Amino acid sequence: MDPRKVRCREIVEADIEAVSQLLTRGFSGRSQNYWLRGLHRQGQRDVPDGCPRYGYLLENCERPVGVLLLLYTQRLEDGGPSVRCNVSSWYVDPEFRNYATLLTSVAQKNKHVTYINISPATNTWPIIEAQGFRRYCGGMFFSAPLLSRAEKGMTVERVTGASAAVEGLPPADFDLLRSHADYGCLSLVCRVGDEAIPFIMIPKRMKSGRFPMPAMQLVYCRETPDFVRCAGALGRALIWRGRPLVIIDSNGPIAGLSGVYTESRGRKYFKGPNPPRLADLTETELVLYGP
Q1: Cβ-based neighbour number of residue 228 at 10 Å
Q2: Which of 40, 63, 70, 233 is the most buried (most CB within 10 A)?
Q3: CATH placement of domain 3-138
Q4: Is residue 266 a contact partner of residue 145, using CB atoms and an 8 Å limit?
Q5: Could you state, in order of their start, the residue ranges of all structural domains in the chain?
Q6: CA separation, residue 3 to residues 8, 26, 97, 106, 150 (Å)
Q7: Under DSSP, is residue 150 helix (H, G, I), strand (E, B) or coil?
Q8: Which of 42, 43, 29, 69 lies closest to 291, judged by CA?
């Protein structure tokens, strides 16, 4: 190691192979193909002007020794357009850990960007809070939507990447459902009368207990009460797919739903001018890389 030749710079397309190898070393439960698929997806999506496409790497003597992935997206908030950044996978080789703060300081320097961390390890919570991040989600609610009463006349239809426009669904919602279907998400529309209510979920297998339980994680709905209202119809559609549970970001038990709330997992943080809302994990690592 030559400390005089340690530097932080933006990841470019030519770094993808080396970055995937570095991340495979750092996250033993993930294959290199897992990282390559996600990095290629990052390479194909639109990013706001002036934002890095992939994130930053730390290198020593032109060899990657650390990485921090960043997923930028343009949002429409109540006050107008804004930029959000999902601070994703972070790894630095052990002998270079003293330089790890170079990555975070460069990555979080823009005060006009809202940064989110949706998958912090429990032991990093105090570190994240010391960096100025605030909690916006305290845990997860594990719901059993099949136990909810289905609203009379409500139907459920699936949106795929090849679907035509859905009657009653605004173009922005339709584009979101279709693009996330291409990522492997399950995009659904609940319809009652002339009303179309959008949902995006992603398959997830719960690993606790003796037997893994197949579930879905809610990626997007307009607001949590929409899910409560449509839970019965969604539960009947999901049970045919062998997914009896839906995991929902929450700050407590959700009135009107059967299930269990826990704070042992699911905590999420943000830093910046626009606090995120619950039930919106679109264009994040959960979607582009997978659970």
Answers
A1: 18
A2: 70
A3: 3.40.630.30
A4: no
A5: 3-138, 140-265
A6: 12, 21, 12, 18, 63
A7: coil
A8: 29
What is this structure's pTM?
Answer: 0.91
C-alpha to C-alpha distance for 7 and 25, rounded to whole angstroms: 20
Burial 99-135 (b: 16+ CB within 10 A, else e): bbebbbebbbeeeebbbbbbbbeeeeeeebeebebee
For residues 23-52, give the mean pLDDT. 93
Place of tokens 């039930």: 279
Let me know the angle formed at the C-alpha of 190 by 137 and 79, rounded to the nearest 5 degrees: 45
Of 51, 54, 32, nearest to 43 by C-alpha is 54
Report the range of poorest mean pLDDT among 4-18, 145-159, 221-235, 243-257.
4-18
Please check the confidence at residue 4 and state whether its pLDDT lies above 80. Answer: no
Q: What is the gyration radius of the CA atoms in the chain, in angstroms?
A: 20
Q: Give the Cα separation of 143 and 206 in Å (integer).
A: 13
* Alpha carbon distances (Å) from 156 to 143, 153, 230, 243, 247: 18, 10, 9, 15, 19
Query: In CATH terms, are 3-138 and 140-265 the same topology?
Result: yes
Helical ranges in 59-110 per DSSP H: 100-107
CB 158, CB 188: distance < 8 Å: yes
Tell me how far apart the alpha carbons of residues 182 and 286 are, in angstroms, rounded to a whole number. 14
Q: In CATH terms, is domain 140-265 a member of 3.40.630?
A: yes
| Residues constituting the chain | 291
Residue type for position 112: H
Cβ atoms 114, 83 nearer than 8 A: yes
